[in-house]
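Long-time lurker. I teach an intro course on protein structure, and each term I like to show students one example going from raw sequence to a predicted 3D structure in token notation. This year I'd like something fresh instead of my usual example. Would anyone be willing to generate the tokens for the chain below so I can use it in lecture? Attribution to the forum is fine with me.
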Amino acid sequence: MSSIKQFQVAFDCAEPERVARFWCEVLGYVISPPAGFDTWEEYDGSQPAEEQGSWCACIDPSGVGPRLFFQRVPEGKVVKNRVHLDVRVGTGLVGEERLAVLEAECARLIPLGAVRERLLYDGTDSCIVMQDVEGNEFCVD
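-- Reply from a regular --
Happy to contribute to a lecture. Here you go:
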């Protein structure tokens, strides 16, 4: 039996490049142009007009995290995500110390276009439920 070594996370969205650039800022990723192109703009501009902006991808420059792939779809988001990303900034922390780190990350993400939904906090463990620039839920954890 083979073991999967890599995977990517795919997002359906209306504006792939916009959503990709948001997640680059959140995670410290970079836009990944296809082979043979130096920049995303060079690649996208080389495509037929009807294909421009149909997808975008970003990668972890350290090579550790998964590739994120964003593809344009005609329908909008209508229900809660069945899968979401957890942005892990408070690993190993508990209580007020953890909450402070999560709140600081939340404050960093809001000017990027993220929306805070709610805080889940039981006095020890916590996470902040947020939405990205197209309303996809994620947690600051």
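Some talking points for your students: The chain has two domains: 8-72, 85-140. The longest strand covers residues 115-121.
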